[in-house]
Amino acid sequence: MPKREGYISWDEYFMGVALLSAKRSKDPNTQVGACIVNDKNKIVGAGYNGLPTGCHDDDFPWDKQGEFLDTKYPFVCHAELNAILNNIGMDLRGCRIYTALFPCNECTKAIIQAGICEVVFLSDKYEHTPSAQASRMMFEKAGVTCRKVVSNIDSIHLSFNEQDV
User: Fold this and answer.
1) Which distant-in-sequence residues (6+ apart) come within 8 Å of 50 by Cβ?
2) Please, which residues have CB within 8 angstroms of residue 15's CB and are 6 or more apart in sequence?
3) Catalytic residue at 140?
4) Could you give the dihedral angle defined by the CA atoms of residues 77, 83, 85 and 89, in that order, rounded to the nearest 10 degrees?
């Protein structure tokens, strides 16, 4: 019997993990997930955008506009930073990170400092912003490869119905 056809690629698998991680985000506007993988295709970290541990989701604002302290921006940790901080305790040099959204300049600094060598992203909807431009400049100077994920599928359906297993 030949092997099953139509299985997902490594890129689709790891981006899928990043997208599934994003489903944990409480942010009503933007849900981003990230997945860090070593050179042996083993997941070594995952994260999503959310508040720091110990900060309750109901005690902080989720607004995008208003006075700085009345918005989510000073409080939310981005998915990439959380994936780095949530890693399994290993050196991340030489790893790659899959992220739903091209990293901001702050996450870019953490990615570079962690030694991650490749960024694979799904969306680059902020590519013309100063933050994304700064990220690209830093990645280029640091020798970090960036690429948009290439997928042969549009979506994956997950079922929690035991009859489907």
Assistant:
1) 24, 25, 26, 27, 57, 76, 77, 82
2) 35, 98, 100, 120, 122, 149, 151
3) no
4) 170
Q: Please write the tens of the pLDDT for every residue from 113-156.
A: 999 999 999 999 999 999 999 999 999 999 999 999 999 999 99
Cβ-based neighbours of 142, under 8 Å, separated by 6 or more? 112
Q: Exactly one of 5, 12, 80, 162 is catalytic; name it.
A: 80
Predicted TM-score (pTM) of the model is 0.94
Six-digit token string for 92: 């991340």
100, 22 in Cβ contact below 8 A? yes
Contact by Cβ (8 Å): 45, 38: no
Longest dimension (CA), the chain: 63
Q: How many whole angstroms separate alpha carbon 114 and alpha carbon 107? A: 10
Residue 161 DSSP code: -
The four Cα atoms 94, 35, 87, 111 give a dihedral, to 10 degrees, of 50
In the structure encoding, which two tokens stand for residue 24, read together?
């944990």
For residues 115 and 57, the answer to whether their CB atoms sit within 8 Å is: no
Pairwise CA distance, residues 62 & 26, whole Å: 9
Beta bridge partners of 101: 123
